[in-house]
Specification:
It is a single chain. The protein is mainly alpha-helical. Helices cover 72% and strands 0% of the residues. It is built from ten helices and no strands. Helix 4 packs antiparallel against helix 5, helix 5 packs antiparallel against helix 6 and helix 6 packs parallel to helix 9. The termini are far apart.
Amino acid sequence: MNALRNWTWKNLSFDQHIQESLGLEFELNLYTSSLEHNPDDVSVLLEVGNLYTRLGRFQEGLAIDEKLVKIKPEEPVFHYNLACSLALLEAIEPAFVALKTAVQLGYNNLEHLQKDKDLKMLRQDPRFSDILKLLIHTHRERVGRKSEEEILEQELDFQD
């Protein structure tokens, strides 16, 4: 009985992964309660979608990304995030459609596209190179005066 009197929450110790997960869940609860009052708040929806993905709750993250695309269909980053969620759920065909749409709308972060772990499943597909070529042709000034071959060589070096 005496041991119970001396017990406090500070006595609990969790491993790093559990601590991080609890913190993310707490943060998610704060944001989702905010959405009850303003369900179309884009900045909050972005945070919620990111948290769902970080927690491995990909289906819920997908629902948020789909909602963001409906709210702002002209926003390339929302289509990019949708492609990531679809890829994480192994929905390869729709992931490529969303990724192509993102690039056509102006997504131009070549480096992030090449390194994003969420798109790992897509990189093995030849269509991924087509997306890179589309980005390069659409946004050549962003990547400088390098030739398409030089840029794609960098991409191939990254995959190894």
